[in-house]
Write a structure and sequence with these properties.
single chain; mainly alpha; two-stranded antiparallel sheet; 14 helices; 59% helix; globular
Length: 421
């Protein structure tokens, strides 16, 4: 809204109106606004949730301090969503396809999470929206994002090419195609040529190889959105855990979008240039500011929980953002903790089924899943788990901070991977 107003002011030669042309200026404004909304308006939303008795329902799993969380206001993800959307609508370029997709994804996943939380509160138990309906919603979003990237003429890239010297075979410069192209190319780490083309895997289709590449890309998009969204949802079990990790990941993704939207920085990193992707930095700045503001109330001991309204949305936003900047194959490293949380639950279920079938006695791989709860349980042998370490229960606040530290290390390694060949 303000972006278009300032465009009109530019036409009228109003001094200072060109500030809105600078991504860095609008990103700072978006972050400050979202931080203000999350902290100031967030307090009012928390009070309202308390009056409505929208409290967390906690099952007694024998974790230290767990039952003290009963009744803590949930559905706090509303704070995050509002704090993201308002700055984007005010200072974002709403004619930019990337901004529109991110806003749409936020509202889509927010609605799914809200419905899940609402059903839990209505039923007064932990059984909210059935898992299959969540999956359908996530798959639907994957289809929308994938098809939009295929059909929209505004989503294009400029492929990077290395120019090498004849004598030493060293890279002299990075050149780019003269025109924008539609492509399923993406960036992959730790290889000499950073670009990977999905259609390379569908060459057996002959003339239909490119179409097959897009179909494969859409399937990967669906899988990544579903896995990342559910991973963030599973991680949301300790005060400030998902909030802090998502903010760290958001900083890394914002930097990648800024670099990929600049010809100069793209050339330095030898990655594809994505015209228009710099607008996503404004969105991610609002995302980071909203999470920092929410962390003010969500840090241990939490005054509010984000619920599925927040966790499903955060994971989905991260996945969609990475896909839009063609960095989805960096997520296994950047979001490793999310995926480990997913895998810990899968491994736990498989271990229980296999041991029950073979021995007639159920054994677990971990003391408890998702994985962060494994560290809260004492390894005293009372639980028949294959992995008993650590033997002593780790305090919740220490687990959270250690996960944050690991997330920072993973973010740093993700950037290093772009320069290691």
């Amino acid at each position: 809204m303000l972006y278009f107003i300032f465009e009109k002011l530019q036409d009228a030669n109003v001094p200072g109106a060109r500030l809105m042309d600078y991504i860095t200026f609008r990103s700072v404004i978006a972050m400050v606004l979202s931080l203000f909304i999350a902290t100031v308006i967030g307090r009012k939303i928390i009070n309202r949730l308390q009056l409505m008795q929208v409290g967390e329902i906690v099952r007694n799993l024998g974790l230290e301090g767990q039952m003290k969380k009963t009744g803590t206001p949930t559905m706090g993800g509303i704070i995050i969503i509002v704090a993201i959307l308002i700055p984007c609508l005010l200072v974002g370029n709403l004619s930019n396809i990337y901004m529109l997709l991110l806003i749409g994804a936020t509202m889509w996943l927010g609605a799914i999470g809200f419905l899940d939380d609402y059903m839990k509160i209505k039923k007064h138990n932990k059984d909210g929206l059935q898992g299959k309906f969540k999956i359908v919603g996530q798959v639907g979003l994957g289809l929308i994002v994938g098809l939009t990237m295929y059909l929209s003429p505004d989503i294009v890239i400029r492929e990077n090419h290395e120019v090498r010297s004849l004598d030493s075979n060293h890279i002299v410069e990075i050149s780019y195609e003269g025109s924008d192209i539609k492509s399923t190319q993406t960036t992959i780490p730790f290889v000499k040529e950073h670009n990977f083309e999905y259609s390379d895997l569908t060459q057996w289709l002959g003339d239909n190889a490119e179409t097959g590449g897009w179909i494969l890309f859409i399937l990967v998009t669906i899988f990544i959105i579903t896995a990342t969204s559910n991973g963030a949802n599973l991680m949301d079990g300790l005060d400030g855990l998902t909030t802090g990790c998502s903010a760290i990941i958001g900083v890394a993704l914002a930097a990648m979008a800024y670099l990929g939207g600049s010809v100069v920085y793209s050339s330095y990193l030898n990655i594809m240039y994505i015209p228009g992707s710099e607008e996503m930095v404004v969105y991610m700045s609002a995302f980071i500011g909203a999470l920092i503001g929410f962390l003010w109330y969500n840090a241990f001991p939490a005054q509010v929980f984000m619920g599925d309204t927040g966790s499903l949305t955060l994971g989905g936003i991260i996945a969609v953002f990475a896909i839009l900047i063609h960095k989805e194959f960096l997520l296994p490293l950047l979001c490793l903790l999310f995926y480990i949380e997913d895998l810990s639950v899968i491994v736990q279920v498989l271990t229980c089924k296999i041991t029950r079938r073979r021995t007639g006695k159920t054994r677990r791989m971990f003391k408890m899943t998702p994985l962060h709860h494994h560290f809260q349980k004492p390894g005293d042998g009372s639980i028949d788990a294959i992995i008993q370490r650590p033997h002593a229960a780790v305090p919740e606040s220490k687990i959270v901070v250690r996960f944050w530290i690991i997330c920072i290390i993973l973010a740093a390694l993700t950037f290093v991977s772009l320069k290691l060949r």
